[in-house]
Amino acid sequence: NSMYTKIKLTKHALAHGVVWTHGIGTGLVSVNLTYAINFEVTFNLKCDQTLPRDRVAIVGSIPVLGDWDPEQCSFLETSTETYPNWTIILSLPRDTLIEYKFIIVQHSHII
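^ that's the sequence the OP posted. Answer follows.
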């Protein structure tokens, strides 16, 4: 799936969060604005397209997101209590255009 989302993390743009729809679900990006250089960003994704033992990951255009290398992706977390909601908190650079997408990983194979 080549669908990806672009965001630019600025105080103005993220004051109330960013809501988006993605190919595998919908979610909310919220930001802790306490860091001077980076923002602590929480990605919340609702994705019910996974099977048991599948994992949802984020990959994107900057090093912390793997520079588009799925082998370097960051995995979101869920539990039996929170499924189908997946979450990850990342420190991302401010005032930087970031492109990213969520992927489903089945037994180390990306869907």
